[in-house]
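Below is a concrete protein record.
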Amino acid sequence: MPNKRSGGGLSPTQQAAKFLGVSVLAGAVLAGIALPAVGALGLAAKGSVESFDELPATMKTPPLSQRTTILDADGGQIATVYSRDRTVVPLKDISPYMQKAIVAIEDSRFYQHGAVDLKGVLRALNKNAQTGGVSEGASTLTQQYVKNVFVEEAGDDPTKVAQATQQTIGRKIRELKYAIQVEEELGKKKILENYLNITFFGQQAYGVEAAAQRYFSKSAKDLSIEQSALLAGIVQSPSRYDPVNDEAEATKRRNTVLQRMAAVGDISQAQATDAMKAPLGLKVSKPKNGCITAVKGAGFFCDYVREVFLTDPVFGKTKEQRAKIWNQGGLTIRTTMDPQAQNAAQRSIKEHVYKSDEVATAVSLVQPGTGKILAMGQSRPYGFKKNETQINLSVDQSMGGGMGYQPGSTFKPIVAAAALEDGMPANKVYSSPYQMPYPSPVSACDGKRWVNDPNNPAKLENENSSEVGPYDMREATAKSVNTYYVQMISDIGICPVTTMAKKMGVVRADGDKMPQVPSIALGTQEMSPLTMANAYATFAARGMHCTPVAIESVSRRVGDKTTSLQVPKSTCSRAMSENTADTINALLKGVVEDGTGTKAGLGSRPSAGKTGTTDERYAAWFVGYTPNMAGAVWVGDPAHKRKMSGITIGGRSYGKVFGGEVPGPIWRDMMSGALEGKPVENFNTVHIPDSKPRDRGDGGGGDREDGGNGDNGGNGGGDGFVGGLVGGNNNGGGGEPFPTPSFSIPEGFFRGQGNGGGNGNGGRFG
C-alpha cells in the first residue's frame, strides 16, 4: 500500500486520516488528560497539527520479547529464561470467547470505528467535564496497542518506560498518529492478534498464551467463556484485579465483563448468568524463569550459556546489541550439556560434599577433540538462600566466576609437556633434594631473567622429608616431587612453560597475565576448573587443543518466522606433538596406577590424571581424563579462608585433605557414571625407558600424597638397607612419616631408603 503519491504528497487515504486526526486530536487528548483550563483546548488544537507533521512517518515495531528455552544435547529442557514471559500465538490459536471478551470490555465499537472513536471521545469529554477529572478514557484498542508497542520498545529501562506511559499531550499525539497508520496497514484482525500478544495480564505474564498458562495451566485456544472474561478483565488493572491475590475483586470484574459481552450480543444473557455463577477455577502455574529453575543441577551451566551469549561477538557486535537480542528472547538454544554426564556429576558431588560444608567443590567435564562442555556443577546450589550462591565456581571471573584457585601440582604436567617439546628426554633425572633454594638465575621471556634474592633466597621443599632424589620424570610425576619440577623449569626456562600454557588455553581466572616466575611450576597461579579440564583434554586429544564451547545451535523466532543464528565454534590447534602428549599420557597413567591418584582409578577403564594440593591446604584438586572425556574437580573454600586440616567434608572427618583423597573419589564416581555404557578406549602411550639404576629402595605403591594407609603402604624395598628396615614392613606402616632417628646419622645416608610406609604423608605444596 503506497504511503505517498509519486509527487511526494500524501495519498487521499492519508489526507483523510490526517484531517480526522487533527480534527479530533484536541478532544481525544483531553479525553485522557485532565487540564486546568477550558482554553487549553485551543492551544492543544493549534499545536497538534505541527506536532502531527513532525512525527516520523512509520512507527518502529520491535519484535515482541518472548521466553527463551535452553536445551541439553539430547533436546531435553534445562531451563526457560525471559525478560518477559510471552509466547506469541496466531489469532486462530486464541479462543473466540477471549477475542470477544477483550473487545467487549476494552473497545466494544472496535469493528465500527477507525483509529479514533469520535463518539467515544465526545462521551469521555462530557463525562470528564462533569467530574472535573479523568474518570473515563477514550483510547481505542488500536491506541492501546500502540502504547504497548512504546512500552515494549522501552524494554527494561525505567526512564524509557516512564516516557512511554506518561500522561502528556505529546505522547497522545504520537499515539494517535501511529494508531491511524496501524489501522491502515494491519487491519482489525491483525491489530487484535497483536494486542492480545503484547498486553500485560499480571503475574509476570505478557500476552494471552502466557496468561492462560499462568492462571489456568492451559492454552489460550482452550479458554472458556468465564476464563476469557476473567483474563479480559485483568488488563485494565493487573494489580487490582489479580485473581491470585484478590479473588473477590477479580470475580466482580469478571462478571462485569460477562455482562458487557451479553450487552453487546457476544453471548446470551443466560450464558452470562451461568458463567457468573461459576467459580474462578484457577489452576495457577507459578512463573518459572531463569537459571535458578534449571534441572539436573545445571543452573551454573545455564548461567554460563547466558554469559557466552552476552559476551561473544558472534551474537552481535556490541554488548548492547547482544543484550537486546537476549532480552527479546524467542530463542531456542541447544547446548553441549550431556544429561548423563551432568547427572553423574551431581550425584557424585552430593555423595561427597554437602552444601552446608565449610568448603565447596566444583567440577567441569569436557570432550577432548571438540571442546564441548559436557557437564558443570558445584556443591553450593544456584540460588539466593543460605549455602547457595550465584557465583559459578567452575569458570573464569569474566564469565560469572570467582578469582580462581591455585591448581597446585595439577600444573606440573604442563611443565613436563614444555620440557618434552624442548627436547628433554622422558627419563631425565634431577637430584631433587628434600629442600632447596629456587635456582637462580632462570631465563624468562623477552631475554629477561628471574633472579633469587641472594640475601634472603626463596626456598621450597617437598611435602615430606623422606622425599629425596634423585628422581626421574616418571617417579617424580607419580610422587609429585616439587624440587624435581622446579629444577626442570630452571633448566628449560620459564618462557616455554608459559607459552605451552597459553597454547593449552591455561590462563589466570582473573584475566591477569601469567607471571614470569619459577614458582608457577608448583601451580601458584589461580585457575578455574573449566580451564584445567579443558587443558587436560589436550593431552587426551594427543596434543590438539580445542577452545571450550557450550552452544550447539540457536534458532530465533520473530513473529511467524524462525531463523538460525550463527554460534561460536571451537577453534582447534596443535599445542604439542603427538609424541609429547602420548608421553604425558604414560606419565599420568602412572599417577593413577601407582602414584598419588590411585583412589581416582576407574578399574579396567584406562585413565590418567594428576592430584594437586596447595600450600596450607586451601585447595585440593584432581584433574584427569580418559581418551574420550576430561574432567577437573576442585575442593576448597571459595573465600580462601578455611584450611582443610581437621575438617569434616560430606560427613567424613579428615586430618589433612589431599588431592587424591577427596577430589579423587569425586572424579572417579563422576567419570564412572558419565562413561557408563560408552566404549572403553585405550591411550596411545610411549615407552619411557628406565633411568640408570640407582642405589635406592623402591618401597611400593602407597597413596603417597594422601599419606597412604596400611593396605596400600607396600613392602619396604630390599636394596635400601636402612630404608627397608625402618620404613617398610609387611603392613605398609600405615603411611606414617619417616621416623626421626634417636641417633646421629651422616648426611645422605638414607639416599637408598625403601619407601615402604606409603612414603609418609606425601602431598604437594604446589
In short: The two ends are 74 Å apart (CA to CA). The CA atoms of residues 661 and 759 lie 15 Å apart.
